Amino acid sequence: MIRRDEVYKIGILNKPHGVRGEVAFTFTDDIFDRVEADYLICLMDGILVPFFLEEYRFRSDSTALVKFEGVNTAEQARRFTGVEVYFPIHHADKADEDQLTWSYFVGFRMEDTAHGHLGEVTDVDTSTINTLFVVDRGHGQELLVPAQEAFITGIDRTRRVITVSLPEGLLDMDNALADNDDGNNDN
Question: Which of 54, 59, 129, 148 has the maximal Cβ count within 10 Å?
Answer without folding.
Answer: 54
